[in-house]
Write a structure and sequence with these properties.
The protein is an alpha+beta fold. The protein has 15 helices and 18 strands. The protein starts with a strand and ends with a strand.
């Protein structure tokens, strides 16, 4: 091969600088290989050049340059060619003569390569000391290849290696960025489609850093409105739930456990919405960074639960406690009275005249009478007391923490008066009154069943005494 020793030092520096710049601005590895190939032909006067990548222990070529144009030529060389093993093993510039054995190149496709008497193989070594690629320089003349040519080509191969490594890294970075963008887009799509609010907040929840668009669908606030007023979340928690929720936030921060809470929050329209709020701390190694959470609207579930509780514990016609809830409340009253050495009273009531109204005016009139009677009973006792419908036209009342028989008589008189007052939908000929039996704890019973039996017996005594009256149980 003829060398290019006639190039001055300045020309060589300029040539290498231009090659380096062109390789580093190339968009892909094939472009880098072309720049290196053309530069190599200027360093060493060759008739053709081809550059291939090492893929699966084989050198893969896709094109070559014949001094005038780039021409397509796809071929692969592996261990069947001895010089490939030498190149991989020693990773040094290698001169290969094609005079002694048939050329590995197809003369019909690449005659310039096949007819060359020799070619020079210049390995391109990666930063992990692995073979990345190889340049082949071809010439038809028997010319010695000296050490200076070798040094120039090795320097070019080194520059090519750096450019290829950088291209691989940039390609990997672009792939990571594209994957990240796809992940973010997928996450955003998922976040914006789920029927819940997602948010990111500071560890103490004093500032909301991000809130998803669903905040407008669920709470009525736009993202900008919600983020602009950093007190919105705490201010809008229902006043009966606020202190509990804030305490749960503090406890979560203290323990480092995820935050879970169900509470009511005022929407922008003023409607109270039940939400389930769950948040976990995002950490980087040992450092807590921020909270990431999800808020679900559970109003419908809470309303269903409330309806189930209502059906299980309350009479559907009157809204009063049913038998099951009354018995539970009576057990609680007995336990509390024992603990605090207090007294209380159990009243058993029966509507006089109800059967006549129900039989003559119909079941609808009877239902209206029961509902109105229940309302009058509840209106004449305290909130701490329990009024229940036991079934039919029978009612019971627990008067908690009563201090004297006189106070019980006062309440009993109010109830008798309230029930005997006229009813708008009932003709005056149908008189509705109340027969009431009263049992006292602990005088008339020390447990639930004893008190109920005593009050029931006293009620029958009142009924036999002419109705529209009350009677205390007498042992």
């Amino acid at each position: 091969m003829a060398d290019a020793h006639q190039l001055s030092h300045t020309e060589l520096v300029t040539l290498f600088a231009e090659a380096s710049n062109l390789m580093h601005v190339s968009l892909d590895i094939p472009s880098i290989m072309r720049v290196a190939s053309l530069t190599a032909m200027q360093l060493v006067d060759a008739s053709a050049v081809a550059t291939g990548l090492l893929l699966d222990d084989k050198l893969a070529f896709s094109e070559y340059y014949d001094g005038q144009a780039w021409k397509a030529y796809a071929c692969r060389f592996g261990s069947e060619n001895g010089w490939i093993d030498d190149l991989i093993s020693h990773r040094k510039v290698l001169a290969v003569s094609q005079c002694d054995e048939p050329s590995p190149f197809d003369e019909n496709i690449a005659p310039v390569l096949a007819q060359a008497e020799q070619f020079i193989a210049i390995p391109v070594i990666g930063k992990e000391d692995d073979l990345l690629a190889c340049m082949l320089l071809f010439d038809g003349n028997e010319v010695q290849f000296d050490a200076l040519d070798c040094a120039h080509l090795e320097l070019l191969a080194s520059m090519m290696s750096v450019a290829i490594d950088n291209s691989i890294q940039l390609s990997e970075n672009r792939r990571v960025e594209e994957d990240l963008e796809k992940s973010v887009a997928t996450y955003r799509t998922l976040v914006e489609q789920i029927p819940a609010i997602t948010y990111i907040a500071t560890l103490d929840r004093s500032r909301i850093l991000f809130v998803s668009p669903q905040v407008e669908d669920i709470l009525g606030y736009s993202q900008d409105d919600f983020l602009a007023n950093q007190e919105t979340w705490a201010q809008q928690i229902h006043e009966d739930d606020r202190e509990r929720v804030l305490s749960e936030v503090r406890e979560s921060m203290k323990s480092g456990l995820p935050f879970h809470s169900e509470y009511r929050i005022h929407s922008k329209s003023g409607r109270d919405i039940w939400v389930k709020d769950a948040a976990a701390t995002v950490r980087d190694h040992d450092h807590d960074l921020y909270l990431q959470g999800v808020v679900h609207d559970i109003t419908e579930r809470k309303e269903s639960e409330e309806k189930l509780v209502q059906m299980a514990h309350f009479d559907q016609l009157t809204g009063l406690a049913n038998r099951a809830l009354f018995l539970d409340r009576l057990d609680q009253s007995v336990a509390q009275a024992k603990r605090h050495r207090q007294g209380f009273a159990v009243l058993f009531l029966d509507l006089d005249g109800f059967k006549a109204v129900n039989d003559n005016l119909g079941h609808k009139a009877g239902d209206i009478l029961l509902a109105e009677a229940a309302h009058r009973l509840a209106a004449n006792v305290r909130e701490v007391d329990t009024v229940a419908r036991m079934g039919g036209d029978e009612f019971t009342i627990i008067l908690n923490e009563v201090s004297s028989r006189e106070s019980i008589e006062h309440i009993a008189q109010k109830l008798l008066y309230a029930i005997s007052a006229p009813y708008e939908h009932i003709d005056a000929q149908y008189k509705v009154t109340l027969s009431m039996g009263i049992a006292l704890y602990p005088e008339d019973g020390m447990n639930r069943d004893g008190l109920i039996t005593a009050a029931d017996n006293a009620m029958y005594k009142a009924k036999n005494s002419g109705k529209n009256c009350f009677s205390f149980h007498q042992s």
